[in-house]
Write a structure and sequence with these properties.
The protein is α+β, with helices and mostly antiparallel strands. The protein folds into 2 domains: 65 residues, Type Iii Antifreeze Protein Isoform Hplc 12, CATH 3.90.1210; 122 residues, no CATH class. The protein contains 2 helices and 11 strands. Strands 5, 6, 7, 8, 9, 10 and 11 form a 7-stranded antiparallel sheet that branches. It starts with a helix and ends in a 6-residue tail after the last strand.
């Protein structure tokens, strides 16, 4: 082997050594990144907005992979966790699904329906209505004709509260611009079909709807004669 060939072999060996060094450097960088980022895990991101109290399904989410160290401890990593769950509040598109965003769907007894209405925070029992509570629902109505007295009616008795939502600001509608904006709370009840009709009618047409918290135990029945009140007939 002459001197030119020896130089060629040496250069070739140097090139191989440089390539191995570069490869080792790349591996070192990758390993360093992996050590800082950590292993990846599955998470789920919302494809679209989901309204409160909506039953959740797999089609509302997309699966993504992200570093485990960047994922909160409350993140949902298995869609089996949403089975039988509903949204606590509005879930926004692009948000990662968290366990504190969802709750078990309230159990209904045979013949009951789940009905949610907005209750004025000022006329409800502020801060004292909680899931599992029992309430009577009162509504005040204008007289049926001009000059007729206003009435207060007990619309529903012993309504079971399933869920209490978050305080929401409400603007007066176009037909009631004289009223000031109010704060209201969505409250979900378990009701019979006829009581569901009564309470939704009251929400739509009553001047005010109020909740009266019923104490546990005791006789909570209200006689029919005491369900309607007029000031002129009060003796």
């Amino acid at each position: 082997m002459n001197s030119r060939q020896r130089r060629g072999v040496i250069l070739l060996l140097l090139s191989v050594l440089c390539a191995l060094g570069a490869f080792a450097g790349v591996l070192s960088v990758i390993n360093d990144v992996k050590s800082k980022v950590g292993p990846e895990v599955t998470a789920y991101r919302l494809k679209t907005d989901v309204p409160p109290y909506t039953t959740l399904g797999a089609g509302q989410f997309e699966r993504i992979e992200m570093p485990e160290r960047w994922l909160s401890r409350t993140a949902v990593t298995d869609l089996a966790d949403i089975r039988g769950k509903i949204a606590v509040t509005t879930l926004h598109e692009g948000s990662l699904l968290q366990k504190d965003m969802i709750v078990d769907r309230p159990a209904l007894r045979p013949g009951q329906q789940e009905v949610a209405i907005m209750i004025d925070a000022a006329t409800g029992v502020a801060g004292k209505i909680t899931p599992g509570a029992t309430v009577n629902v009162y509504a005040t109505f204008e007289g049926e004709r001009e000059g007729a007295p206003a009435q207060s009616k007990i619309i529903v008795t012993n309504a079971r509260v399933l869920d209490v939502g978050e305080l929401t600001g409400l603007e007066p509608d176009e037909n009631d611009r004289g009223r000031q904006p109010t704060d209201a709370v969505p409250i979900t009840f378990a009701l019979s079909a006829i009581d569901a009709q009564r309470i939704t009618y009251a929400e739509s047409f009553a001047q005010r709807v109020r909740l009266a918290l019923v104490a546990p135990g005791g006789d909570t029945a209200v006689p029919d004669k005491d369900r309607t009140y007029e000031l002129a007939k009060d003796k």
